[in-house]
Design goal:
Rossmann fold; 22 helices; 5-stranded antiparallel beta sheet; 4 domains; 45% helix; single chain; 7-stranded mixed beta sheet; alpha+beta; Chemotaxis Receptor Methyltransferase Cher, domain 1
């Protein structure tokens, strides 16, 4: 097959994009890649790749438009419903059954775009194992190269048109409605971890039980596809499944996977004993040629690939003799070429960093691959984490030849995974704290009931940006200003009331007649200066006292009947009594009882006006 000629201007443009934005598109198929770049060139009226590079330098915003055109980000909930039904009925139950009731289920959705596919996986798993187990046992790693698409996926907010493929029953179970949108439930959202990952450059996520890569590989060159397939094979644990899109047929040409259901594009990883270890290791770490070319390489090329593979690998014969050790293994474990052909048990690597002798016997006895995960190894004051895979090596007729031991350094992946999970946990904590803050605000600001819907909407947006927090603070500031205005009004009214009381006090003080105001229980509320001058008691001595219990020169007991008559009829009463004023002089007191009316016209007390004349 003839390779199409390379356009040097186009390759220079790709190098510029990689250098300035970190996006490496060199592994994408050239025809489709050129077609999408030209689509942007036509949109901005640029004729050549060199001119378009100059345009990118002058217009920073064009990078986003270009990446959206190249990456496409076409996705949907339950895309290809028949395939998803097969996965839900046959694949997921096998994964759950194999993992047992307490083990974690790990899923990897590559090229997840805005998250619909990852949330589809969550719904399918939730229907099989239950929503509670979904949040406790499942980790769905949703990865993509597009940061903007990942940001939208983390929010999990979709329109009615987006969720049309989701049945009404699943919508009610897994989504919450907010302002006409559908938001994936927060308590289940924590099972989905979004992160940026470049399939071509970054190491694979390991220990995966179900790997979904739908219509992702179809855009890549055969060389990159071969490399990524080897990564997928490494990522999937024993008994795992690979789910591809309808447009991807390349696995029919690969010996790394065997079809489970070719029509629905479901595959399982081939046993390690059926895969050339050297070639597999080379594919995982490098970018080898297409599958067909690789099959035709001679033994010397295979030996060279095994020797230069970046992963350490040993091969031990059935009798315990170390048969092969590649360059990386010799460097890591201090193995000399003179150790080849000698007993493996005599070498430090047989028991450090992990006890391998018993595992080799187990692998040979059972004929199965033995995995040692997260093996801690301290070397030169540095702690590394290794994954060790011990696999039986068989001949063409199925006879046991020995054991292959592969050491993979997963320190970087472990650190990335820990960081990603910690970040996700911190984000969830921030969501919970923001939700608690929202509830407190709603309780404290009951007077803002009319704006609750707007506050709830703002709170949802506030979960991801500080700018939205500032918006809410501005609203609260506006409310505080309104409350200050109300306080000013209350203060003004209080001053008016104080002036009125002062005026009434002046009036009562100026009257020459004694004035006493009592309530319906005849408790004294007002006792003016003239009354104090008549009977010798100050206002503070009589306030709150029962009027008829006063011991003064006025026979107050004789006023009981007139007062009661006034309270019953509302008619004023005048009574003349013989009395003795505070100076001991006999006087004749005329007491006029008047009703004290409330705002509704009822009688709430009595106003007694006392005038005296000397006998």
């Amino acid at each position: 097959m003839t390779t199409p000629p390379r356009d040097e201007d186009f390759e220079t443009l790709l190098s510029y994009i990689k250098r300035n934005r970190g996006f490496d598109f060199t592994g994408y198929k050239r025809p489709s890649l050129v077609r999408r770049v030209r689509r942007r060139m036509d949109a901005v009226h640029v004729g050549s790749f060199g001119e378009y590079q100059d345009y990118l330098q002058a217009h920073e915003g064009e990078f986003g438009e270009l990446f959206n055109t190249i990456l496409i980000n076409v996705t949907a909930f339950f895309r290809d419903p028949a395939s998803w039904q097969y996965v839900a009925e046959h694949v997921v139950p096998q994964v759950v059954k194999r993992k047992g009731s307490g083990e974690q289920i790990r899923v990897w959705s590559t090229g997840c775009a805005t998250g619909e596919e990852a949330y589809t996986i969550a719904m399918v798993l939730g229907e099989v194992i239950g929503q509670r187990s979904l949040s406790e046992r499942v980790k769905i790693y949703a990865t993509d190269i597009d940061n903007e698409a990942l940001r939208l996926g983390r929010h999990g907010v979709y329109s009615l048109k987006d969720v049309e493929p989701v049945s009404e029953d699943l919508r009610e179970k897994y989504f919450e409605r907010q302002d006409g949108k559908f938001v994936f439930r927060r308590d289940l959202r924590r099972s989905v971890i979004f992160g940026r990952h470049n399939l071509i450059e970054d190491p694979p996520i390991s220990h995966i039980d179900f790997l979904v890569a739908r219509n992702t590989l179809m855009y890549l060159s055969p060389e990159k596809q071969s490399s990524i397939l080897a990564k997928f094979h490494y990522a999937l644990g024993e008994g795992g499944f690979l789910f591809l899109g309808k447009s991807e047929l390349l696995l029919t040409r690969s010996n790394l996977f065997v079809p489970v259901d070719l029509k629905r594009r479901v595959f399982a990883p081939a046993p390690v004993s059926q895969v050339n270890p050297a070639r597999l290791l080379q594919r995982v770490a490098a970018n080898p040629g297409p599958e067909g070319e690789d099959e035709q390489r001679d033994d010397s090329m295979g030996d060279a690939g095994f020797e230069s593979a970046p992963l350490a690998q040993l091969v031990v014969e059935r009798d315990g003799t170390l048969a092969l050790a590649n360059l990386e293994a010799r460097r890591l474990f201090g193995i000399d070429r003179g150790d080849l052909g000698g007993p493996f048990a005599n070498l430090d690597v047989s028991f450090r960093p992990a006890e391998l002798r018993s595992k080799i016997e187990e692998s040979q006895r059972d004929g199965e691959v033995v995995h040692l995960r997260d093996v801690e190894w301290r070397r030169n004051k540095e702690t590394r984490f290794l994954e060790v895979q011990i696999a039986p090596v068989t001949g063409r007729e199925g006879e046991a030849l020995g054991t292959s031991i592969t050491f993979s350094d997963v320190t970087r992946f472990r650190e990335l995974t820990t960081t990603l999970e910690n970040t996700n946990h911190e984000l969830e904590t921030a969501y919970e704290e923001l939700q608690a803050t929202t509830e407190e605000l709603e309780t404290t600001n009951e007077e803002l009931q009319s704006t609750n819907e707007e506050l709830e909407t703002t709170n949802e947006e506030l979960q991801s940006t500080n700018e939205e927090l500032e918006t809410m603070n501005e609203e609260l500031q506006s409310t505080n200003e309104e409350m200050e205005t109300m306080n000013d009004e209350f203060k003004s009214r209080t001053d008016e009331l104080a002036d009125t009381n002062s005026f009434l006090f002046s009036v009562l003080t100026s009257l020459q007649s004694g004035v006493v105001v009592v309530d319906r229980d005849l408790r004294i509320h007002v006792w003016n200066g003239a009354a104090a001058d008549l009977w010798g008691l100050r206002e503070d001595e009589v306030r709150g006292e029962h009027f008829l219990n006063l011991d003064i020169g006025l026979p107050v007991g004789e006023l009981r009947k007139p007062i009661r008559a006034l309270l019953e009829t509302g008619e004023p009463q005048t009574t003349t009594l013989k009395a003795t004023n505070r100076r001991g002089r006999a006087v004749e007191a005329t007491v006029t009882s008047n009703p004290l009316q409330d705002g509704a016209g009822g009688i709430e007390g009595v106003v007694l006006v006392m005038e005296t004349t000397d006998k």
